[in-house]
């Protein structure tokens, strides 16, 4: 989904700096988008590393400032507490939760210096409702939901809006990885539980990210935007 978000923002004319631990995939995306005339820059980034975020600060300051921050990187784990080791727990919390904290800590000052802007944190429907299993994932995504509201309250006076996005089942490599960790029939189960009876396309989430990033949502902050084909409305 991150590549799709990068593309939609760059197509609006933004200079987009994006990061990932997967350097090959990042460079491939950078080449493809630049070939399409878009102004994008890939930077290796482990969102759980404070040193990596410090490096990002230099890159975005060189790029002329920062008005939009999308915290999208994430990992999923479908297991419940009894099957989740402490190392697995720490990995999910480090990437999904600590990653957002480090992003705020290092980049809010740059956004403030740039005159304000918009932050979009990618949570999940599992940051709003529980699920069978998913103990570390729901812990991390529930945290992102409330960290978003605290950040909205804290940085609103600086002209910085902060909102969260809550995707349901979106067709990406993560969804395939997730389904592989669930019992047979989970795919059909998700589809039956989704009123629109299909998985979402990454571009459908990117359109919502663009709305929250743009001035079209200028009086929206601390809000939860659910993009799930009705999945949790029907629960
Ligand atoms: N796909 C879904 O159905 C779904 C549903 C709800 C929420 N989400 C959330 O949407 C976001 C994007 O998910 P996706 O489906 O595109 O997943 P994905 O697994 O397809 O992509 C996630 C990306 O994050 C990168 N990443 C992992 N750990 C990282 C780290 N420490 N630092 C930097 N990058 C790292 C991976 O290399 C990968 O490129 C995640 O936060 C995920 O939790 C996805």
Helix content: 40-55%
Mean pLDDT value? 97
* Overall outline: globular
Q: What is the CATH third-level topology name of the domain at 67-227?
A: Rossmann fold
| Series of H and E elements | HEHEHEHEHEHHHE
Oligomerization category of the chains in this entry? single chain
Helical stretch count?
A: 8
SS strand fraction: 5-15%
Specify the CATH homologous superfamily of the domain at 67-227: NAD(P)-binding Rossmann-like Domain
Distance between the termini: 25 Å
Q: How are the strands ordered across the major sheet?
A: 3-4-5-6
Q: Quickly name the level 1 CATH class of the domain at 67-227.
A: Alpha Beta
The count of strands amounts to 6
Task: Write down the Rg.
Answer: 17 Å
Structural class: alpha/beta
Pick out the low-confidence regions. none
Largest sheet: 4 strands, parallel
Helix and strand arrangement:
Elements (H helix, E strand, L loop, with lengths): L1 H10 L4 E5 L2 H13 L4 E5 L5 H13 L5 E4 L14 H28 L3 E6 L12 H21 L4 E8 L5 H8 L5 H8 L8 H12 L10 E4 L8
Parallel strand pairs: 1-2, 3-4, 4-5, 5-6
The site of nicotinamide-adenine-dinucleotide has 25 residues, from helix 6.
Please give a structural write-up.
- The protein has 235 residues and is α/β, with parallel strands linked by helices.
- The protein has a domain at 67-227: NAD(P)-binding Rossmann-like Domain (Rossmann fold), CATH 3.40.50.720.
- It is 48% helix and 14% strand.
- The protein is built from eight helices and six strands.
- A four-stranded parallel β-sheet has the order 3-4-5-6, with helices on both faces. The chain has a two-stranded parallel sheet with strand order 1-2.
- Strand 1 (16-20), helix 2 (23-35) and strand 2 form a beta-alpha-beta unit.
- Nicotinamide-adenine-dinucleotide (NAD) is lined by residues 1-2, 20-22, 25, 45-48, 72-76, 95, 122, 124, 167, 169-170, 172-175.
């Amino acid at each position: 989904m991150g590549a799709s978000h990068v593309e939609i923002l760059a197509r609006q004319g933004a200079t987009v700096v994006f990061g990932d631990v997967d350097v090959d995939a990042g460079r491939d995306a950078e080449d493809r988008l630049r070939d399409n005339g878009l102004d994008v820059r890939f930077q290796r980034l482990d969102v759980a590393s404070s040193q990596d975020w410090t490096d990002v600060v230099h890159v975005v300051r060189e790029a002329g400032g920062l008005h939009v921050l999308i915290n999208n990187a994430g990992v999923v784990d479908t297991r419940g507490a009894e099957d989740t080791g402490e190392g697995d727990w720490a990995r999910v919390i480090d990437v999904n939760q600590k990653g957002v904290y480090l992003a705020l800590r290092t980049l809010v000052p740059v956004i403030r210096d740039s005159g304000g802007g918009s932050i979009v944190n990618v949570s999940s429907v599992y940051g709003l409702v529980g699920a069978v299993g998913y103990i570390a994932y729901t812990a991390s995504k529930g945290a992102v939901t409330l960290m978003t509201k605290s950040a909205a309250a804290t940085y609103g006076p600086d002209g910085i809006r902060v909102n969260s996005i809550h995707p349901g089942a979106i067709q990406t490599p993560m969804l395939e990885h997730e389904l592989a960790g669930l019992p047979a029939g989970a795919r059909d189960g998700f589809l039956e539980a989704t009123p629109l009876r299909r998985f979402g396309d990454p571009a459908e989430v990117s359109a919502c990210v663009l709305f929250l990033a743009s001035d079209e949502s200028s009086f929206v902050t601390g809000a939860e935007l659910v993009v799930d084909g009705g999945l949790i409305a029907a629960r």
